[in-house]
Amino acid sequence: MADERARYFRRLRRLRASARRWSVTAGGLGGAAAILTPYAGIGLPDAAWAGAAGGALALAAWRWIDLRALAAQPAPPALDPAEAAARSRARLVAAVERLPVGPGVLAEVRRFRSRAALRGTAAAEPWARLDRAALTLAGMAGRLTGLAEPALLEAAAADRSLRDLAERVASVERTVRLAPSPARESLADTHRTLVGQLHDGVAAYEQLVVAAAGYVAEDARPTGAHPAASRLTEATDLLHGVASALAELRAVGDQRRAA
């Protein structure tokens, strides 16, 4: 949604410019009509000048009336700076998403911001491992079809859950640093439990990625020789046969010339 205050002032500027422009046009046409009208009477060309001057004058009057009516209205309140920044950021994100590489760029930016927010906490290392595993799985996603599709959906759900858990680990860790001594021990125990859950979850996700790689490898393994290798062997044999035939023809030609 556009800024209503900015839209109001843009419309005000356009009306003011239009009113001035039509006022100048009406003055010029009126002066020309007064100078060019002969004293003996008004002919058809003079009537055209006078009509154009009258039309421009009427348009100028309407523009001034619209301008005064709009100026009499109170201007919309200014946006809160945070809200204005959020709207500007949303428009920028929408513009980038329309580009061919936009979604990938935005995903990388979000990943970098999340990694930077967890830097220095116990969640940073498992987050980096999760990132690597998720990127590896994304590279195989196009081949995980058929029976592997449910596992891919489970992996997506686990990825979201583990990232949320990593953010909670970082939040609790920051709170432990600020908490007073009586509450610090309880929070530290909770933090250790969450860190353990995060490491176990990331390890399970990595095992899933390894299993997915094994599925892709087995699915692509041919029963015999690879078709490309068979075709290359046939082409090699054909070239050898052609070369042998050319050598024989050349030998026969040499014998005939010698005779």
From TrEMBL:
InterPro entries: Rv2743c-like. The chain crosses the membrane at residues 21-41, 47-65. It comes from the Bacteria. Keywords: Membrane, Transmembrane, Transmembrane helix. Pfam families: Rv2743c (PF25587). This is Uncharacterized protein.
